[in-house]
Amino acid sequence: MQDDATRPDVLVIGAGMAGITCAQALAAAGQSVLVLDKGRGIGGRIATRRATLPTGEVSFDHGAQYVSAPSDDFAARLEGAGATHWQDGADKPHLVGTPGMSALMRALAAGLEIRQSCEVSALAQDGDGWTATTPMGQLHARRVVVTIPAPQIKRLLGADHPLCAAATNVDMQPCLTLMAAFEPDSPRPFLHRFDPTHPLAWIAQNSAKPGRGNTAVTWVAQAGPDWSATYLEGAPDLIAAQMLPLLCDVIDADPRDALHVSAHRWRYARATRPLGQPFLRSDDHSLYLGGDWCLGTRVEDAWTSGSAIARDMTGLANVG
Ligand SMILES: Cc1cc2nc3c(=O)[nH]c(=O)nc-3n(C[C@H](O)[C@H](O)[C@H](O)COP(=O)(O)OP(=O)(O)OC[C@H]3O[C@@H](n4cnc5c(N)ncnc54)[C@H](O)[C@@H]3O)c2cc1C
């Protein structure tokens, strides 16, 4: 357990867009904040994976593809973090991080104290705040903000906690994601396509985004919710082997030409029925639950939720 001098005012659990947004706004309002995330990197579902090919490094945005049509405030914040427009012919601007989506999150998180690989396994309220159980010991703060996917919250708080009922009403769909790389002269029939009737509902030519280099043609393909649910528990290698021929069929490539193939399992990718309000709060205002699932399925929903929590905690209108 920390001594009083090292206890932050607020513990933020989750270093995705919601948690980072909230933490920065609280820090700007003068609160001491410690962010905890179970991942090795930060960003949550805004994620980039790297792979080394004989010809050099490639990367894949295997979570959020871009941020579309954000509000002016949010767009300015993203552009300040280095986001650029992907000229993909879409009606609405699509903002991406460079050299990968995760670069956005690293920039947005600058200056925060973040402990990575720090999974919170339990949260308990005690005399003057909350205690989080982590592999680094017990951490204490007067107030806690939890920004993890809704279905995971009851593991932290216990199913009987009054806020859990509302959070666990939010259902989140899985998404299996394929990452594949081919030689630079391989087919590039489109930049991205959405076809909800195909097992691979979304396919994007990742290497066509700005600043990705020309080592290889890289693709990210996301299986639709039904296909993802059917094969969710498969081993990642097996999932990748099943998805690769489906991709190759669409892009007119030969699976044997793939230079890199891997898959990622997003167990909680998108809310099917969001909460309908920007956050949940305990009666004593010491515990807040937030994240994209409160409002929708997009990065901007996470940002709105994180900003709203910080505003509520500080009583300031202009944070976020
Ligand atoms: C495949 C895919 C494609 C997407 N495409 C788009 C897109 O193109 N555009 C768009 O706007 N949105 C897209 N989204 C949605 C977008 O990624 C999310 O809306 C947004 O990133 C959610 O942010 P968040 O902070 O609410 O949650 P998350 O990003 O999930 O952050 C939660 C964090 O909590 C951490 N965590 C969980 N449990 C614990 C624990 N017990 N202890 C400590 N840490 C914990 C996790 O490691 C994670 O970092 C996509 C999502 C997926 C999965």
What does this structure look like?
With 320 residues, the chain is of the alpha+beta class. Helix content is 24%, strand content 29%. It contains 8 helices and 19 strands. The strands form 5 sheets. A 6-stranded mixed sheet has the order 8-2-1-12-19-18, covered by helices on one side. Helix 1 runs parallel beside helix 8 (299-314). It is globular, with a radius of gyration of 20 Å. Bound molecules: flavin-adenine dinucleotide. The site of flavin-adenine dinucleotide has 37 residues, from helix 1, strand 13, strand 17 and helix 8. Flavin-adenine dinucleotide (FAD) binds next to helix 1, strand 13, strand 17 and helix 8.
Run of helices and strands: EHEEEEHEEHEEEEEHHEEEEHHEEEH
- Count of extended strands: 19
How much of the sequence is in beta strands? Answer: 25-35%
> Averaging pLDDT over every residue, what do you get?
95
| Low-confidence regions | none
Rough outline = globular
Biggest sheet: strand arrangement: 8-2-1-12-19-18
Measured as a percent range, the helix fraction is 10-25%
**What's the end-to-end separation, in Å?**
31 Å
Instruction: Count up the helices.
Output: 8
Q: What is the gyration radius calculated from CA atoms?
A: 20 Å
Can you name the CATH architecture of the largest domain? 3-Layer(bba) Sandwich
CATH superfamily of the largest domain: FAD/NAD(P)-binding domain
Q: Any idea of the CATH topology of the largest domain? A: FAD/NAD(P)-binding domain
Q: Which small compounds were modeled alongside the protein? A: flavin-adenine dinucleotide
